[in-house]
């Protein structure tokens, strides 16, 4: 059972981050299990969403709006054949505005909430769908504790 700082490629900075997670030895690393799993393998129709759960969705952008208010925000109306959801962003970046064009298709993953416009997702992960976009993952995604 070796200390993590003795492993090749683990320097002082990495060892300090691991220690914040109570990972001090190689045994600790072996038994460091995910705290949760996310299912990103199945695209769910928008009429089957439950508030408080996270889903993988695909849809077409129907509208993009920059609502007035104290905080600058962007709202994207996304729709599939079964329903619609609003994607809300408070941290707007160029890559996001480049993808947020009416008619573009998006694959998104995030938690469903109830908002002013019905069902909403705040800062979901987004991917522009093109002819080169791979199919969804085929396995569950492990979620580990973070040192942030």
UniProtKB/TrEMBL annotation:
The keyword Nucleus does not apply. Gene3D superfamilies: Nucleic acid-binding proteins (2.40.50.140). SUPFAM superfamilies: Nucleic acid-binding proteins. One of its GO terms (biological process) is DNA repair. The keyword Acetylation does not apply. Residues 7-145 form the RecG wedge domain. GO terms for molecular function: DNA helicase activity; hydrolase activity. InterPro entries: NA-bd_OB-fold, RecG/Mfd, RecG_wedge. It holds the Pfam family RecG_wedge. Keywords: ATP-binding, Helicase, Hydrolase, Nucleotide-binding. PANTHER family: ATP-DEPENDENT DNA HELICASE HOMOLOG RECG, CHLOROPLASTIC. This is ATP-dependent DNA helicase RecG. It comes from Acinetobacter johnsonii.
